[in-house]
């Protein structure tokens, strides 16, 4: 039977064998929520890169470039890391290059040996669940965390995915069980559950309140971002 597991931070990814595995990368606040939103609103593609320098090189080649570090837009780039910035009609069909503190780094780490890399958020939870039910591979949810540390919102998404698939997959290690139980406690009030979390406090200091509530909404979009080569497109 297929198994599902959770890697709570990309710094632990080396402990997992993923060559027969679909990796679902999640960075709820806010990279993967931006990716899902952008593709739902008609963005043509998103190329995630690990470094600001790589993003700048793609900007020079004509990409619309989004760069974030420490939850703030990097000077000289076109887009920040708010999902609301990806709802612009001018971005329909556009090719976007993106680098973020945690999310894009996690994608670049996963793509080296995974069968497939998907991008997950609460915004497309149901679409990810439905796709995975049809797949023959194991699943690993890779939480982007914050600079190598575990964070609550990504863990809750991982738990939501494990909870939704627990009848289809064997639950792997304790990290998956912990994430699922945390989600089961939090599911009726996600916003309240994460209210004192480190990343929420970080975003609130920057005045980014509406992004927090938006990113915790479930099943707004029926999109499954998948990495094709080095580029994310809607499946």
From TrEMBL:
This is Probable 2-phosphosulfolactate phosphatase. It catalyses: (2R)-O-phospho-3-sulfolactate + H2O = (2R)-3-sulfolactate + phosphate. InterPro entries: ComB-like (IPR005238), ComB-like_sf (IPR036702). The lineage of its organism: Bacteria, Pseudomonadati, Bacteroidota, Cytophagia, Cytophagales. SUPFAM superfamilies: ComB-like. One of its GO terms (molecular function) is magnesium ion binding. It comes from Runella defluvii. Its EC number is 3.1.3.71. It is an enzyme of class 3 (hydrolase). Pfam families: 2-ph_phosp (PF04029). Belongs to the ComB family. It comes from the Bacteria. Signal peptide: none annotated. Keywords: Hydrolase, Magnesium. Its cofactor is Mg(2+). The gene is comB.
